[in-house]
Automatic annotation (TrEMBL):
Gene3D superfamilies: Enolase-like C-terminal domain, Enolase-like, N-terminal domain. InterPro entries: D-mannonate_dehydratase-like (IPR034589), DgoD-like (IPR034593), Enolase-like_C_sf (IPR036849), Enolase-like_N (IPR029017), Enolase_C-like (IPR029065), Mandel_Rmase/mucon_lact_enz_CS (IPR018110), Mandelate_racemase_C (IPR013342), Mandelate_racemase_N_dom (IPR013341). This is D-mannonate dehydratase. The lineage of its organism: Bacteria, Bacillati, Actinomycetota, Actinomycetes, Pseudonocardiales. SMART domains: MR_MLE. One of its GO terms (molecular function) is mannonate dehydratase activity.
Length: 407
């Protein structure tokens, strides 16, 4: 890069090839283009406006090589720190600048992060069924695709909609298109009666060699979480995810006191500071922060470094509601970070693969970021423009008595 190279243009692209994504494009005066992901499910336009109105004008003229300084500038400069919208915007800029740095150096980003510490990144995907036989079929189908780690979610008798359970052949997509969120009915007692048996059936079906995971999606009290943890100990889960809403992290102590089931938390966290207590007090085993929502490659690495001190590993969020740019970025961290354990991989619909052309690949239960310079994901802008934004929201949940609960 010539020393006079600066950021010439910053563009925000909102596209909906089956679901909404926000892509950030940074172009340098030398004509190098970097891509970032700025997708925040159900609040996409807030991040797009933050980037367009408040970040893009500040970036033009800056040195694209100063990735860390730009992170600090946007984080400290906002004064109103943290939060999903700000941190997703910063994450997108960070990923795009790493992409540029890699392209200028002619190296994949993982090489700039110190090089590979493993040959490939273990991934897990989702299996889902309304009843146990359907769930076991779904687990079998994912194993046939090569997955050695599978998240299992089942329907609950008496409930018409359950987090993580899909109807039909398409992948699970919780955000519903339309001007308002769908209202789901939730019954924790029914879930607690059913889930341990379904998980035990899955373990019996697959035998000891397959890693099984389960996501509670923030729905239990600490007491309920402790009971569930105990009830599933013999299932030998790889992790039990988001057992309680993690705003109050003290409550996890109660869960820890009663069960050794490995706990994973963090997909809704945005900075190292939300992870700090969980890590330093060893209240979790896996931290789940997402490269997009937690400040990009630079900040995910920082969280990993703190976690490493406490022998806690990374298992980043990788739903289909962050774009293939995010997955690519996460995989560069995964390949180069010693305490990276596993990457969630839900997969994408066919149109998404066309709009986001990616060097990362899946084979045999593992992902690899690819060896092209940068992050390795390019956006087909002409195709993206053919899929305009469509309002879509995550569901909300009410108990049987009509009161709101956590979705
Ligand atoms: C989830 C997500 O992948 C997961 O573990 O908890 O599916 C989450 O519900 C969505 O990302 C919400 O947008
Ligand atoms: Mg989750």
């Amino acid at each position: 890069m010539s020393r006079t190279d600066t950021i010439a243009a910053v563009d925000v692209i909102v596209t909906s090839p089956g679901r909404n994504y926000v892509a950030l494009k940074i172009t340098t005066t030398d004509g190098v283009v970097g891509w970032g992901d700025a997708t925040l499910n159900g609040r996409e336009l807030a991040v797009a406006a933050y980037l367009r109105d408040h970040v893009a004008p500040l970036l033009v003229g800056r040195d694209p090589a100063r990735v860390e300084d730009t992170w600090q500038f946007l984080y400290r400069g906002a004064y109103w720190r943290r939060g999903p919208v700000t941190m997703t915007a910063i994450g997108a800029v960070d990923i795009a600048l790493w992409d540029i740095k890699g392209k200028v150096a002619g190296q994949p980003v993982y090489q700039l992060l110190g090089g590979a510490v493993r040959d490939r990144v273990l991934s897990y995907t989702h299996a889902t069924g309304w009843d146990v036989p359907e769930l076991l079929d779904s687990v079998d189908a994912q194993r046939e695709r090569g997955f050695r780690a599978v998240r299992v979610q089942t329907g609950v008798p008496g409930l018409d909609t359950v987090y993580g359970v899909t109807r039909g052949a398409t992948g699970y997509e919780p955000a519903g298109r339309g001007a308002a969120p769908v209202v789901e009915v939730w019954d924790t007692d029914a879930y607690l009666r059913h889930a341990p048996g379904a998980l035990a059936a899955a373990r019996e079906h697959v035998g000891p060699d397959v890693q099984l995971l389960h996501d509670v999606h923030h729905r239990l009290t600490p007491g309920q979480a402790a009971r569930l943890g105990r009830a599933v100990e013999s299932v030998d889960l790889f992790w039990l995810e988001d057992v309680t809403p993690a705003e109050n992290q003290e409550v996890l102590r109660h869960v820890r006191r009663h069960t050794t089931v490995p706990l994973a938390i963090g997909e809704v966290f945005n900075t190292i500071w939300e992870c700090q207590q969980l890590i330093t007090e060893q209240l979790i085993d896996f931290v789940r922060t997402c490269v997009t929502h937690a400040g990009g490659i630079s900040h995910l690495r920082r969280i990993a470094a703190l976690a490493e001190v406490w022998q806690i590993r990374l298992g980043p969020h990788g739903p289909s509601d962050v774009s293939p740019v995010a997955l690519g970025a996460s995989l560069h961290v995964g390949l180069s970070t010693p305490n990276f354990a596993i990457q969630e991989y839900m997969g994408y619909g066919p149109q998404v693969h066309e709009v986001f052309q990616h060097a990362w690949s899946y084979a045999d239960g593992h992902l690899h970021p690819g060896d092209v310079p940068g992050v390795g994901v390019e956006v087909d802008e002409a195709l993206a423009a053919r899929f305009p934004y469509e309002p879509a929201y995550l569901p909300v949940a009410r108990r049987r008595d009509g009161s709101m609960t956590d979705w």
